[in-house]
Write a structure and sequence with these properties.
Blueprint: H1 3-11, E1 16-19, H2 21-26, E2 38-41, H3 43-51, H4 58-76, E3 85-86, E4 98-101, H5 119-133, E5 139-142, H6 146-154, E6 158-160, E7 178-180, H7 185-189, E8 194-198, E9 201-207, E10 219-222, E11 228-234, E12 239-244, H8 263-272, E13 279-284, H9 290-304, E14 310-315, H10 331-335, H11 340-349, H12 369-382, E15 384-388, E16 400-405, H13 412-419, E17 427-432, H14 448-456, E18 462-467, H15 474-482
Parallel strand pairs: 1-2, 1-5, 2-4, 5-6, 7-10, 13-17, 13-18, 14-15, 14-16, 16-17
Antiparallel strand pairs: 3-4, 8-9, 9-12, 10-11, 11-12
Helix pairs in contact: 3-5, 8-9, 9-11, 13-14
């Protein structure tokens, strides 16, 4: 017996977790995530894995991966299955418990209201049987299915959600990318202050109690008689270096005719327009300007600065209502209905000059009436490619501006697949609102967007901003608050 396992066995009996199929299909590595505790896989779970293995969906892939993992564990087992298979070797010391497979028929008496033909109820029957067989051990059902957990608890059984994939328990603790400096900031951090100018930016080197908490590319700000907006260029130590921002709220710094309307939008444009930042995440409610700012920055850097060869936009095709079935046409045409947001934003970016403007397009040239505007739109569209997520595996994007819209609907694994497509010279921007998740079994805590925000914070070539204020219209703002 492993020494860690022996130690924990002295303190308290290890738990026995019964796994539902959706846990394995959600995370095929879940077999190794229960540390010193034992795992029991009912025969019905294996049956359901078998039933879900066909197809090219993420669920089918995960079902196949889970089956392969089980096959490796079982084929390496040298003794009888009834004693349990030690997971220490197969998991490379990640787990030290034992895996039990159902090796006997279980005839547990279920209430007459639960039909035994249903797979969920058969798994609940297994949990009841194990509870009677091991009265001194905690036997816990682990499932992502809320109704199954309710049923199990109604029968007096312990049931839990699978938490291991959650990045954060409380999404209120998610990194926002911004920090308000206290009023006494310069009093407490001004001792031995160094300041210098370089390329029209001002730099400050400070010492003080807040310095260890400052992350690279985190935005700091202060209101008052001497307002400050800066970002951290060196942080996490005894000293920190701050660099002042480009003011994108001023017309002279407009990006494709767009100016920042609030503090967070200014932060976002500083990230989007900075060539040293390869990965940007923007979180925010509907109407905070995520897509508009990103598209404006993408068009400026692709068509004017020529830093990127084209803009690629992709998003998860999860319908909010009923699915509308198969669509005819090419990949681009099939994706068009999902890209209404792109069309709306292009209309704003390519709007005819109003009284405030001088009759020039954001790109600088005269519109020349409707013909000129149509030509500009055609030029813009020729540089924007809409791609489906389904065909992303194995691709490499060189010098592209990759926008991942509605990124909250991606799992951490899908997010990894997408972000690792980036080749040299490519910038990746993830946009989303974690309060609007449409993918089944995905929560705010386990979304791929939450995952990348948490994992990328503090990297020198990435940045994140949570946009707070809606700028769409007074109607949309009020609806967001009261509905």
């Amino acid at each position: 017996m492993n020494s860690k396992r022996a130690k924990s066995a002295k303190n308290a009996p290890t738990k026995l977790f019964v796994l539902d199929t959706n846990v394995l299909m959600h995370d095929p590595t879940s077999l190794f995530r229960f540390e010193e505790h034992d795992i029991f896989v009912p025969m019905m779970t294996l049956e359901e894995l078998d039933a879900n293995k066909k197809g090219m969906s993420e669920v089918a892939r995960n079902a196949r991966q889970a089956s392969r993992t089980l096959d490796e564990i079982v084929s390496e087992a040298e003794h009888a299955m009834a004693d349990g298979i030690d997971l220490t070797g197969p998991s490379r010391d990640m787990a030290t418990g034992h895996l039990f497979l159902q090796t006997e028929a279980i005839n547990s008496v279920l209430p007459s209201s639960l039909p035994t033909a249903k797979a969920d109820n058969q798994i609940i029957a297994v949990v009841m049987h194990l509870g009677q067989k091991y009265p001194k051990r905690p036997v816990i059902l682990v499932t992502k299915d809320i109704n199954m957990r309710i049923k199990a608890r109604a029968l007096g059984l312990e049931a839990q959600d699978y938490f291991n994939d959650k990045v954060l328990e409380d999404t209120d603790l998610l990194y926002t990318g911004t920090m308000e400096l206290p009023p006494d900031f310069w009093d407490t951090h001004g001792k031995g202050l160094e300041s210098w100018k370089k390329d029209s930016r001002t730099y400050y080197r400070i010492k003080g109690p807040l310095c260890p908490d400052m992350l690279i590319n985190e935005f700091v700000w202060q209101e008052g008689p001497q307002p400050l907006q800066a970002w951290v260029k060196v942080g996490g130590g005894k000293t920190a270096e701050l660099e002042t921002l480009i003011d994108y709220s001023h017309v002279k710094n407009a990006v494709w005719g767009i100016t920042a309307r609030n503090r967070e939008q200014n932060f976002a444009l500083n990230l989007l327009m900075n060539p040293d930042i390869d990965f940007v995440t923007l979180l925010g409610q509907a109407g905070t300007g995520k897509t508009l700012l990103t598209l404006a920055a993408a068009l400026t850097q692709t068509l004017e600065a020529k830093l990127f060869s084209e803009i690629i936009i992709t998003r998860v095709t999860v319908p909010v209502g009923e699915d509308i079935g198969f669509l005819p046409g090419t990949e681009e045409e099939k994706m068009t209905p999902w890209m209404g947001a792109l069309e709306d934003n292009l209309d704003v970016l390519n709007k005819p000059a109003d009284d405030k403007n001088t009759g020039t397009s954001p790109a600088g040239g005269n519109y020349g009436g409707d013909w000129g505007r149509a030509a500009t739109m055609d030029l813009i569209r020729s540089r924007i490619k809409v791609k489906s997520l389904n065909f992303m595996r194995g691709r490499t994007f060189l010098n592209k501006f990759l926008i991942i819209d509605e990124a909250q609907n991606l799992t951490p694994k899908q997010m990894k697949t997408l972000v690792t497509r980036a080749g040299p010279g490519t910038k990746v921007v993830c946009l989303g609102n974690i309060a609007q998740i449409d993918t089944p079994y995905l929560t705010e805590g386990s979304s791929g967007l939450t995952y990348v925000v948490d994992r990328f914070k503090g990297w020198a070539h990435s940045g994140h901003v949570t946009l707070q204020r809606g700028e769409r219209s007074r109607l949309a703002d009020h609806a967001g608050e009261v509905l």
